[in-house]
Amino acid sequence: MGRAKLHHIPGYAWHLTHRCHDRAFLLKFARDKGRWLHWLFEAKKRYGLVILGYTVTSNHIHLLVYDTGREQVIPRSILLTASRTGREYNMRKVRSGAFWEDHYHATAVETKTHLRQGLIYVELNMVRAGIVDHPREWPFGSYAEIFSSRQRYRLLDTAILVQLLGIGSRELLKSAYDSWIREKLSRGAIEREPKWTESIAVGGERFVVEIKERLGLRAVSREVARADEREVGAEESASFVLREREGSYKGVFRRKKGVLGNRLQ
Q: Could you tell me the pTM of the whole model?
């Protein structure tokens, strides 16, 4: 449950996705989404998890984090959050069996421009699903926290977030966030982008090559490729990804297990 499906390297921003077992809507109710967020807050307190963004849906979660290099912070945090949420649900429902898919998926994300793209992609998840018209209407995402005045139980590390985005302050972050969301919605650019849930790395070409080199032998079956993007905004940079080569075992694995092939929004 706390294992990343793809190889993890410390010292980067990461986009994590974790789906409920068999695509079941086990996080359907607000109570269960709230419990996942509660245990995420506990992971932040216990292990020092640096949280940059998040969205909890009815059958999967998106989480953007930054790995400061402290050993096993991310897998320990995911293990705590996932196991406690699943255990509480099963006890309440008198249910047995798996709550989550065995592995979560981890994608390294280059900071600044590509981190911004990843954040907005996560924030627009429920818009993409047709549940809300704007991220401000979804209480289980980081957009609501960025624009909230509450001080207790904050999950986001805004000091690190503004630094990684290259923005001067939290107030400027709020202004920029609102602008980014409005720009995406105005263009109707909310389609699913497989690069965020199926790649090992997303960023500029140099960044993705660096990740491949750091993986060494573990990246033998991977290739650096231009991301398949229908449209890139005027202020956006084209993305490259590190992915399985065409014709590798990936297609077979998708059919058998459905882990990398799950259509996460």
A: 0.88
**Token pair listed for 240:** 């490259």
Q: How is residue 1 written in tokens? A: 């449950």
Q: How far apart are the first and last CA of the chain?
A: 21
What type of residue is 173? L
Q: What is the pLDDT of residues 196-242, one digit of tens each?
A: 999 999 999 999 999 999 988 888 888 999 987 655 554 556 789 99
Note whether 174 and 144 are within 8 A (CB).
no
Distance CA 26, CA 6 (A): 24
Q: How far is CA 85 from CA 40, 67, 107, 138, 228, in A?
A: 10, 23, 23, 20, 35
**pLDDT tens sequence across 119-137:** 999 999 999 999 999 999 9
Task: Sort strands 201-203 and 103-109 into parallel, antiparallel or unpaired.
Answer: parallel
Q: Can you read off the two tokens belonging to residue 43?
A: 């992971």
Is the distance from CB of 40 to CB of 82 less than 8 angstroms?
no
Tokens 């924030």, located at residue: 123
